[in-house]
């Protein structure tokens, strides 16, 4: 599978088989994540893979946006203590979130190559997830990601047309 | 899973949904409510496993709920269909 095929075929997976994901695959995903671009090369990200079934179930419970009973939940955090010491105010406003998003896309594409399905999730209760995982106050949760073996085919994705989203050079009124 | 655990799961889902909805897209409100309704249907089904109308209601919700982010019109139609189906359950 080349990169274009991976980009075109990736879908958000919301139903998973009841089958564990080997640790070596998760390490590969973390490696893909840490290889993503990072603003000012800050790399304040932390990749927390929740794999203990009882803990996965609890995080799942407090995350209304999660679905499909994934065997693994990845919690992508930013170490804001590190970010503010080594980065700037912009790291806090947008840099760390941007980095986490780019890492997430790397992870989702690497997962696809292994036959794994993923879904990025922002609907979770921050306080509850933080408490369940015993996260330091200085860690900011950027997103959750369900990871597992897809059960069935995903739905077709609706995408805006190229002409709806593409502008060359200057914006002109006809684009509206 | 016993009833106490199932009710607790539903309670957690409803409260965390309510807590999160303030800053979520508007359509997530009906989405969370219909998801909670489907879970409640599941609990009712345990007490009435042969109820075909309940099974049909669960099927209607299941088939339509994920359309909230891809086909809003179909999603809202599903909510109407689910509401109409309730008449058969009375």
Q: Main β-sheet of chain A, in a few words?
A: 4 strands, antiparallel
Binned, the helix content of chain B reads over 70%
Low-confidence stretches of chain A: none
Could you tell me the strand content of chain A as a percent range? 15-25%
Q: What is the ordering of alpha helices and beta strands of chain B? A: HHHH
* Count of runs of 4 or more consecutive helical residues of chain B: 4
Q: Let me know the average pLDDT of chain B.
A: 92
Structural class of chain B: mainly alpha
What global shape of chain B is seen?
flat
What is the CATH architecture annotation of chain A? 3-Layer(aba) Sandwich
Contiguous uncertain segments of 5+ residues of chain B: none
Strand order of the largest sheet of chain A: 1-2-4-3
Bulk shape of chain A: globular
Rg of chain B, Å, rounded:
14 Å
Residue share in helices of chain A? 40-55%
Helix and strand run of chain A: HHEHEHHEHEH
Measured by residues with Cβ under 8 Å of the partner chain's Cβ, the largest interface is: A-B, 12 and 14 residues
Helix/strand-derived category of chain A reads: alpha+beta
**CATH class categorisation of chain A:** Alpha Beta
- What is the straight-line distance between the termini of chain B? 27 Å
